[in-house]
């Protein structure tokens, strides 16, 4: 059969796409606008489920299709090793291709299904209570861009026209809150957008291997991200991306949650105009919306072709539309020996040593080691985690590696439950159903896992299965693991003097019926229908742990989180403290045996200021997957000299943070960039079993950028890796700049006594900032401190560098500028209209302030402000360099379209500096300029 033009790989890509689009009907095009691509039988286009998750390698939620499960992204970021990240990306991409072929044989879909990745996630971790920390690469945009960029290069492969998989970044952008994320609105200034929130996306698209984005659920400055023109103008325009998709169900959410549009057709038109190509929503809803938008004339077929063409371009580059498929990867590569070895190396490299008084590495004289705590036996999974064919727990890894005796205990209480009203005990019948019908001697023991903040799990001791609530409302001991979207095995325990009352993940009340069967009842506001249960302890975890600690030379206490509880997608963290039961376990063990080491295994840092003095050493690991046990054993014994660095600040307490919906990190001093108070451990922190000395720092400006050279000597007794980090600070900036900012890093192995030369070539653009009025990047002329060290707080060597800067950074205020081009603002919201391209600011409260820096006010006699006041009469007050220079009354206006040019008489001050406005509440401002005379 003669091949068609679109099937001919020798033809130009655009020619092939044009041919294929010309053959598709409008109906067929409307069927290709979601991630689930309908088949086109007559053109031999198979059904294709485009997307897959890729956070830690190929994510298959089917035990029959295991894959290599790498450490959580938070852990991978701690490696500070882009080369390792790229190798992980290559391995993950190969396994994704293999599993896609396997699944295709089973479900009849295209073998090219699942090759567009939903990730990596590069949202900035700017608030310590955000629930999804494990998915991302830290709080610094440079580190995130370098590490995620390397991962995407590995995923894509060397040839962008024939990628192994196609990486799509999550979630563009400012998706840093879980509460009300589908309707939330983040207020972000132009400078913070450019200097912080955009940065990891830009870096991964321009210099990494990313080829597109998934837009975030939230709105930014009132515009839902799916329909934000920033997708077309930035992602596809400035940064070269080729596709954009919605988050799951978010297209529908633009109408039903954001309420931004009257119907799905209008919403679809807005998304298409903004650059969206396909939706992760129900195909029927999207098809209906597209068809209706076409019928109304809200979109054209040419616009539809742009989106469908971008989707088909992805499938074409993957090789699906070629007449002869490419060579298949050998299935023996799946979880092969090389990938397993790479995974073990990654698990070791992400280990962070936070404290060590000399107890580590453990000495050969240690004969008995007690391994205690909730993390010793489980390899805990998060939502974006595949299934591994094997698991090496911490206890197992130590049993394999340790020559002496290993004593083990999770430290959980073993309990029975007694119904307070009937006095009957819980028992599990042959169908796994829990009933309160047994006498005391027949009661079934449960292991009570207390994860803090009221969250518990109950594990049936006899079968090892977790108790869960079924959709029918029964309680059954049948969960093999706890990874699930709806956390049916999680219960909230409200403790009273009479016992505990249990509620399910969806707030249903747990109670027994007349036959004693445990059921759940829907939540009714104001009513508490929970039954009370008395917890009778058969074996106290604390007592067992203390007994083991007394019998051991040293103790390893393994604490941390369950990734499905108290901080995950849809749920922000309730606090930074360790669960109370875990803190108490550590305290009691350390009281019995002072030679106690704390191993944290967690999706996020903790405020462990109280716990630090209890232990002689502290190690941190993310949930590192099946090689966690090997990595912990290798690190404790010194086979792995830890050199992981924290990609996040460890704060000392959890009651000092702004509301999680306040995205102004500059004003709120969040992240290490702006934080001014003490911390437990700074960004980039991590100790080693050896020591290093820095010598001969040289910092110089050259045509190709800034050259930083330094010699590092291993002055200790062990070989080890050092992570040299380069930071800078603008010393006399005309605007607020970070107190410190990472601009380069390198991880190198240095043998004992060896000196290694580190040479960095740093692009000048790392020193730039965004000029919101000129809408361009500038470098301020002046001095910059440049230093090197092992973390953001420790300066080993520093030099001062002079940069000439951009030609013009001062704005002549006689030229009108947009009110939205502010440097900083308080109680002010930017409101954008994506359909009309308008952008204004609105005063949200009486105590608002809007600050514009680096303006030349000259000899201005008036400030002309284009505004509309929708509130009560108020005053417009003008300040220059902190001094009031003018004020006028502003009356109410009837309509949002009643724009007026208000001229405020100001005292001529002839300054070049800051201009500050204070507005009546509910006033909207479009533009500002100075006038020398009326």
Tell me about this structure.
The protein is of the alpha+beta class and 934 residues long. 22% of the residues lie in helices and 30% in strands. Helix 10 packs across helix 11 (283-296). The chain is globular, with a radius of gyration of 30 Å. The model has no long low-confidence stretch (mean pLDDT 94).
Helix content: 10-25%
Number of strands: 50
How would you characterize the largest beta sheet? 6 strands, parallel
Order of strands across the widest beta sheet?
A: 3-4-5-7-10-11
Q: What is the beta-strand fraction?
A: 25-35%
Number of helices: 19
- Cα(first) to Cα(last) distance is 79 Å
Write the layout of secondary structure elements.
Elements: H1 13-23, H2 26-30, E1 36-37, E2 48-49, E3 51-53, H3 73-78, H4 82-107, E4 116-121, H5 141-156, E5 166-172, E6 185-186, H6 190-197, H7 199-206, E7 212-215, E8 219-220, E9 223-224, H8 230-238, E10 243-248, H9 250-256, H10 264-274, E11 278-280, H11 283-296, H12 301-317, H13 337-349, E12 352-356, E13 368-372, H14 394-401, E14 405-409, E15 413-419, E16 425-428, E17 434-438, E18 446-450, E19 455-460, E20 466-469, E21 475-479, E22 491-496, E23 499-504, E24 509-512, E25 518-521, E26 532-539, H15 541-551, E27 554-560, H16 580-592, E28 596-601, E29 617-621, H17 628-637, H18 665-668, H19 671-674, E30 692-702, E31 705-714, E32 720-730, E33 741-750, E34 755-762, E35 769-771, E36 776-778, E37 782-789, E38 797-803, E39 811-812, E40 817-818, E41 824-826, E42 828-833, E43 838-843, E44 849-856, E45 862-869, E46 874-880, E47 883-890, E48 900-905, E49 912-918, E50 923-931
Parallel strand pairs: 3-4, 4-5, 5-7, 6-8, 7-10, 10-11, 13-14, 13-27, 27-28, 28-29, 39-44
Antiparallel strand pairs: 1-2, 8-9, 12-29, 15-18, 15-26, 16-17, 18-19, 19-22, 20-21, 22-23, 23-26, 24-25, 30-31, 31-34, 32-33, 32-37, 35-36, 37-38, 40-50, 41-44, 42-43, 43-50, 44-49, 45-48, 45-50, 46-47, 46-49
Helix pairs in contact: 1-12, 4-5, 4-13, 5-7, 9-10, 10-11, 13-17, 14-17, 15-16
């Amino acid at each position: 059969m003669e091949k068609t033009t679109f099937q001919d790989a020798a033809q130009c890509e655009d020619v092939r796409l044009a041919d294929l689009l010309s053959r598709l009907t409008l109906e067929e095009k409307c069927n290709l606008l979601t991630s689930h691509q309908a088949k086109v039988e007559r053109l031999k286009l198979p059904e294709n489920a485009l997307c897959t998750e890729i956070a830690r390698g190929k994510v298959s939620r089917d035990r029959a299709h295991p894959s290599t499960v790498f450490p959580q992204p938070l852990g991978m970021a701690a490696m500070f090793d882009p080369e390792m990240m790229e190798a992980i990306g290559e391995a993950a991409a190969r396994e994704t291709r293999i599993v896609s072929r396997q699944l295709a044989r089973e479900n009849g879909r295209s073998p090219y299904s699942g090759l567009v990745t939903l990730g990596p996630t590069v949202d900035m971790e700017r608030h310590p209570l955000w629930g999804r920390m494990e998915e991302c690469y830290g709080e610094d945009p440079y580190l995130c861009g370098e590490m995620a960029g390397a991962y995407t290069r590995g995923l894509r492969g060397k040839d962008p026209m024939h990628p192994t998989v196609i990486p799509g970044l999550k979630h563009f952008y400012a998706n840093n809150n879980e509460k009300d994320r589908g309707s939330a609105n983040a207020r972000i200034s132009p400078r913070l957008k450019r200097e912080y929130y955009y940065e990891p996306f830009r870096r991964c698209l321009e210099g990494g291997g990313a080829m597109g984005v998934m837009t975030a659920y939230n709105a930014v400055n009132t515009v839902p991200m799916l329909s934000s023109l920033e997708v077309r103008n930035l992602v596809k325009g400035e940064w070269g991306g080729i596709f954009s998709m919605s988050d799951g169900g978010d297209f529908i959410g633009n109408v039903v949650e954001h309420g931004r549009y009257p119907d799905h057709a209008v919403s679809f038109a807005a998304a298409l105009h903004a650059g969206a190509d396909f939706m992760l929503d129900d195909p029927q809803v999207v098809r209906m919306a597209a068809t209706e938008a076409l019928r109304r004339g809200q979109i054209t077929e040419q616009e539809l072709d742009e989106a469908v063409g971008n989707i088909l371009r992805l499938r074409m580059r993957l090789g699906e539309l070629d007449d002869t498929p490419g060579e298949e990867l050998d299935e023996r590569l799946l979880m092969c020996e090389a990938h397993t070895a790479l995974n073990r190396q990654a698990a070791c490299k992400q280990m962070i040593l936070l404290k060590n008084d000399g107890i580590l590495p453990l000495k050969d004289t240690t004969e008995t080691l007690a391994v205690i705590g909730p993390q010793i036996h489980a390899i805990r999974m998060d939502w974006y985690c595949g299934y591994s064919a094997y698991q090496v727990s911490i206890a197992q890894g130590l049993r394999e590696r340790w020559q002496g005796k290993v004593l083990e205990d999770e430290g959980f209480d073993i309990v029975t439950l007694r119904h307070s009203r009937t006095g009957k005990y819980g028992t599990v019948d042959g169908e796994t159903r829990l009933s309160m019908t047994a006498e005391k001697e027949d009661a079934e023991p449960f292991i009570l896992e207390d994860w803090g903040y009221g969250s518990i799990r109950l594990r049936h001791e006899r079968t090892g299965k977790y108790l869960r609530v079924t959709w029918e409302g029964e309680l059954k001991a049948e969960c093999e693991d706890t990874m699930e979207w709806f956390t049916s095995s999680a219960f909230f325990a409200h403790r009273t003097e009479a016992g505990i009352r249990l509620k399910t993940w969806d707030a249903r009340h747990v109670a027994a019926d007349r036959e004693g069967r445990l059921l759940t009842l829907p939540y009714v506001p104001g009513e508490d229908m929970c039954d009370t249960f008395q917890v009778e302890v058969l074996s106290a975890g604390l007592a067992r742990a203390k007994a083991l600690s007394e019998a051991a030379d040293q103790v390893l206490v393994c604490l941390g989180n369950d990734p499905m509880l108290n901080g995950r997608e849809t749920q922000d963290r309730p606090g930074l403290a360790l669960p109370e039961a875990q803190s108490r376990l550590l305290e009691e063990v350390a009281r019995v045996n002072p030679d106690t080491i704390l191993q944290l295994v967690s999706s996020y840092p903790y405020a462990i200021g109280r716990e630090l003095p209890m232990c002689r050493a502290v190690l941190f690991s993310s949930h590192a997957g099946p090689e966690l046990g090997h990595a912990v054993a290798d690190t404790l014994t010194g086979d792995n000299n830890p050199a992981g660095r924290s990609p996040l600040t460890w704060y000392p307490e959890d009651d000092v943070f702004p509301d999680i919906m306040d995205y102004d990190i500059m004003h709120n001093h969040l992240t290490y960039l702006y934080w001014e108070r003490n911390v437990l451990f700074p960004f980039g922190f991590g100790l080693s079993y050896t020591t290093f000395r820095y010598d001969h720092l040289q910092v110089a400006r050259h045509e190709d950028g800034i050259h930083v050279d330094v010699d590092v000597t291993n002055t200790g007794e062990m070989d080890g890796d050092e992570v040299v980090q380069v930071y800078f600070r603008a010393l006399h900036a005309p605007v607020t700049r970070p107190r410190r900012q990472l601009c380069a890093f390198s991880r190198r192995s240095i043998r004992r006594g060896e000196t290694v030369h580190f040479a960095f070539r740093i692009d000048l653009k790392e020193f730039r900032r965004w000029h919101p009025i000129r809408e361009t990047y500038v470098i301020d002329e002046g001095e910059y401190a440049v230093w090197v060290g092992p973390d953001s707080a420790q300066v080993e060597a520093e030099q001062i560098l002079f940069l000439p800067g951009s030609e013009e950074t001062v704005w002549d205020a006689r030229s009108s500028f947009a009110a939205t081009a502010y440097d900083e603002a308080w109680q002010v919201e930017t409101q954008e209209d994506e359909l009309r391209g308008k952008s204004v600011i609105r005063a949200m409260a009486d105590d608002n302030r809007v600050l514009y820096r680096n303006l030349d006010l000259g000899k201005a006699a008036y400030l002309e402000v284009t505004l509309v006041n929708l509130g009560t009469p108020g005053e417009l007050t003008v300040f220059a360099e902190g001094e009031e220079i003018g004020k006028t009354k502003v009356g109410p206006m009837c309509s949002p379209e009643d724009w007026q040019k208000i001229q405020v008489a100001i005292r001529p001050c002839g300054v070049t500096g800051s201009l500050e406005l204070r507005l009546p509440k509910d006033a909207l401002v479009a533009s500002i300029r100075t006038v020398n005379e009326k």
